[in-house]
Amino acid sequence: MNKNQSTAQESPILGKQSVNLKKPVYIIDSASIVGKKEGEGPLGELFDLVGEDDMFGSQSWEEAESTLQKEALGTALRKAGWKQEDVRFLFAGDLLGQEIATSFGLMDFELPLFGLYGACSTCGLSITLASLVISGGFAEKAACVTSSHFASAEKEFRFPLGYGNQRPLSATWTVTGSGAFVLAADKGGKARAKITGLTPGKIVDYGLKDSMNMGACMAPAAASTIEQHLKDFGRKPDYYDKIITGDLGTVGQTVLIDLLTKKGIDISGQHMDCGIEIFDAKEQDTHAGGSGCGCSAVTLSAYVLKMLEEGVWKHVLFAPTGALLSKTSFNEGQNVPGIAHAVVLESPE
Fold first, then answer.
1. Confidence label for 153 from pLDDT (cuts 50, 70 and 90)
2. Global confidence as pTM
3. Which site from 160, 171, 306, 316 is most exposed, i.e. has the minimal number of CB atoms within 10 Å?
4. Rounded to a whole number, what is the distance in angstroms from the first to the last CA of the chain?
């Protein structure tokens, strides 16, 4: 074997879009803080904290979302037994203009911050970037935080709650919640999961314009990332116990499975969507399911990591999705492109 061949084999760069982490990055611990409605859903008993009032003692919806982030990161650090100064970098974002939930929520931690916007894929984006920084030797420990709030998102993207607009059946319900994750290069005494691979997504635009059907808008991006991930890693869908999207809901799930089936890829036996899992379709009026940055984040923390930590699942592909629009682009008649970032999670043992 010559030197060039050896270098190629050792390279973490895989295929067109992926990274194979030669040394895994560990999710040491995490936290999930949610609102009252989420606490009444199927995963309610698994969340670290359920608010009695979605204002969380704040004076505005935006301030409430900042409180969610502050509580989530503080809880994750306490669970991990870390001090805030142990964290080298923060990777965080939200859905609001100029990421004000993040700025005001995490300011008091006084840590270097990478402010991120990946729409509802921000959980996957933050974990991807933190993993690359840790794997590259630029930090030993990092934290990832993201959030959404039903009322602040409605105000930002649609109509204030007082308007009382009707929602079509294709619409999803923005989750009120925040998820925080603390990552490290070394496992130490415990870990909830290990990160072994990454497939950052690209922007995919199928020309859809309906902001009340986010699932359909984001599904093509999820299909693109999942297809490329399987090609890059040379895997079949059944390698994974679960292939998990963030917030496609029932409409987006159908579109995703159809798009991949046309490519000869059948994920119907492995697919799970956080937006479908977090609410009870029969008992809770959320139409197509849940959405928002907090949807995949709190489901990952409360449910997915639990299954990996306990060894029920060995391999999971976590691919939260985001709709890349703003109130300006929507009002100007622009399309709603999507993006999805995939993270390979494995049982820590």
1. low
2. 0.90
3. 160
4. 33
